[in-house]
Amino acid sequence: MVRKKFTVICYDVSEDKKRNKVAALLERYGTRRNKSVFECMITEVQLKKIRADLPPLIDPTTDTILIYRICLDCYVKSETIGKMTDSIAPQVLIV
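^ thats the sequence. predicted structure below, dont judge the formating
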């Protein structure tokens, strides 16, 4: 069984064209939670691919991409203040 892990990927990309390419790539893997924040439930193989595909899309001297791996115990303690958007986290947990 392939295990997926909850991952938050966010970015600060200065150029519109590059920013749109980053967003288009991340939309294949997760759900946009904010203009530059994506929640993804991905495998290690998918994360490796994302890590390989993102650097050519940005300028490392001006742009930043942050990747946070979040354990399920920590995710269930997360909070949203304000408008709620759909999440990709599992609705049912089997322990």
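Helices lie at 16-27, 44-53, 72-75.
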